[in-house]
Write a structure and sequence with these properties.
With 199 residues, the protein is of the alpha/beta class. The chain has eight helices and six strands, in the order βαβαβαβαβαβααα.
């Protein structure tokens, strides 16, 4: 993906519709890039994984990248296979997820399970998923996001501590527990005592 070896990777996985707050994603990242350029250090690269080329907002999204002067620092390769995505999680330094609304928040959970520090908005389902294991911020307060991403990139001990918390937190979420809780919710909704039939 032509990422310089001396550049850290800030990873985002998801779409670019309005609820994903891609304006905040790019503006905050521009602040991070500006910080490292002022220090004459190699800025990180923002790697965006997802099927975004077909999105009707893709052209304006790419234009915004250009207007912010981020053309050399943003990679949009499109959809990645599970194997490629796992390698990318391993190669990245921080997962940035400024979404305004999520029904659950699977991308931050996957990032935590992969041992990646997470910086996320504190809206909708994210606090329930992330808990105290990541850094959360108000979507309108991008300065906090910029500061935390920089801290993770510059402070290895801080990054490792967040990564460890995230991995431990991710262990609370399993498909088995999801199935059990979904079954229990249906039972409550139906007001009946159905039993699981195991084959």
């Amino acid at each position: 993906y032509l990422i310089p070896e001396d550049s850290a990777i800030v990873l985002y996985v998801g779409g670019i519709d309005q609820r994903k707050n891609t304006t905040g994603l790019l503006e905050a990242f521009a602040g991070v890039v500006s910080y490292f350029r002022q220090k004459s250090q190699p800025p990180p690269v923002l790697f965006i994984s997802g099927r975004i080329e077909q999105d009707r907002q893709f052209s304006s999204f790419k234009a915004r990248i250009g207007l912010l002067g981020l053309g050399d620092y943003v990679k949009t390769p499109g959809y990645l296979s599970d194997g490629e995505l796992l390698k990318l999680y391993a190669a990245s330094s921080v997962f940035f997820f400024p979404s305004l609304y999520e029904g659950f928040g699977l991308p931050p959970l996957e990032a935590m399970a992969a041992g990646l520090p997470v910086v996320s908005s504190n809206t909708s389902a994210m606090p329930e998923v992330i808990g105290e294991a990541g850094v959360m911020f108000e979507p309108g307060n991008l300065e906090v996001a910029v500061r935390e991403i920089i801290e993770i990139l510059e402070n290895r001990d801080y990054a490792l501590a967040l990564a460890a918390k995230g991995k431990k937190r991710a262990e609370l979420f399993t498909w088995e527990k999801t199935g059990e809780r979904t079954y229990a919710a249906y039972k409550r909704a139906l007001g009946m005592d159905y039993r699981v039939v195991r084959k």
